Structures are given as structure tokens and as C-alpha cells.
Amino acid sequence: MLRPDVWHEVVVYLVRDAESDAMHRAIMGIAGATDVITQAYDAIPPEEPGLFGELFVNTDQALRAAPKRRGWSPAKELLLYIAHGMDHLSGADDHAPADYARMRRRELSWLHKLSRPDRRKYDILSA
Q1: pTM given for the model
Q2: b/e for 64-73, b at 16 or more Cβ within 10 A?
Q3: CATH code at 74?
Q4: Which domain does 64 fall in, by range?
Q5: Which of 53, 98, 113, 127 lies at a CB distance of 3.0 to 4.6 Å from 40, suitable for a disulfide?
Q6: Which residue has the higher pLDDT, 7 or 88?
Q7: Could you say which DSSP state residue 27 is in?
Q8: Total number of domains in the chain
Q9: DSSP symbols for 66-123
């Protein structure tokens, strides 16, 4: 589903509950803070077509949620929110339980890949 070849710019804002609530109301028309809010934009000529967007990632939510997950840090929780937001920006929807489960599997797979990179790509001695 994700097509990194068409991504141009995604800005990530770290916000607290109050800002998350305000953005949630402004963008989605829903009251209350949430983990991540996404806003996608169309390219403006003369920009090439592609993905432009913003993620509003709630740090307060991450601090509350991380301790509830065994072996999970607030930083990892924030990365999960960013992955979830990128999934939404790419067109994924999580309204149905099966769609939510599919998204979560994909997002956790990305986090796993980040935590276990192919070290050969980063080893300057092997070049």
C-alpha cells in the first residue's frame, strides 16, 4: 500500500494533549486528544504530484500508553504513532476491525525492521 517513491514531504509535529484536542477538532471535527492526527495535502503546481502531509503526534498519550506495554518505551510508542500516521497518509483505513488489525501488523513490522536493520548497509568497514 505504501509507495515511498511518491512521498515528497511529511512534517511531524510533537504535540501535547491540548494541541492534539485542538487539531482533532479542527481537522476531523472530533473532540478529544488522540495518538496521531494526519493531514494530507495535494501538490501545488509546479510541485510534482506526490504525498505531502503532516502528522500531529501526541507525546502525552505516548507517555501514558507505553508503560502499559511490556518492554515498550515512550520513544517506541511515538514511533508506532508515526508509523500509524504514515499508514493513514498512504490511504489505509482502520474503521473495520480487520483493517485495524492489518494496519497494526504492518506498522509493527516496520518497527521491527527499524530495530533490526541490515547492518551491512551501515557498516563502513564492509564497503
Answers
A1: 0.81
A2: ebbeeeeeee
A3: 3.40.390.30
A4: 4-121
A5: 53
A6: 88
A7: I
A8: 1
A9: GGGSTT--HHHHHHHHHHHHHHHHTT---SSHHHHHHHHHHHHHHHHHHHS--GGGT-
